[in-house]
Amino acid sequence: MLLIVRLHDVQLLAFRSLANAICKTLLGAIFANVWQIAQRLAVQYKRIWPFTLLYRPVLYRRYASKDAEQEYWRAVEKAKQRLQASNAHAPVEGLLVYYVPKLLPEYRDAKQEDPEAKEEYISPRTFCKWHRMVFPGQVRHTSPPQSRCGVLTVMQQRQPTLTEAVTALKSYSSRDRREMRRIARLQSDHAVFHRIDTSARYGALWRTWLASKGPDAAVVFAPTAARGA
């Protein structure tokens, strides 16, 4: 048993010696190659470096003769004259430098739109919403209106139906319907039809509108006379 252990130690020492020898040999070869390459580069640099010291960048250049220099200045003077002649910023009398065309009337004049020129239409539901906002304390029943005056008096006593709103809308002008649409947009449908907001300020807005709008212009077409009359 002791003999086997000693043999194992001897083999281990031999393997370590062989590994060290291989490493030394490999590192020595690599170092030798690197050293040879460095020596070659040093030799090449010794041959080249005197020429690098002789090179200097040319900061300026001289002409070969006085005539060549004068020819250069004559060419410069001609180029300067051509450049001055083509200068667009030079003050020249009688030359129109800029021109601003006259704008067309449709771009220059402000357009004034007639509020009655365009007919305003609103839906019966919008009319019912407006009526609930302007007259929030009225109740709803089924007695139909009789005339235009009847529409105003009866409608102020109750909330109209959608069928009654179609007839009632014919009694208002285009400006009135436009104001109805504006007032109806001030509150949501849920707040109006569920009677969440029953403020009287919308009625005040409508009364202020009636007091300030002025008379409505009515266009009446007379029947044409019969032929031969």
TrEMBL record:
Official protein name in the record: Uncharacterized protein
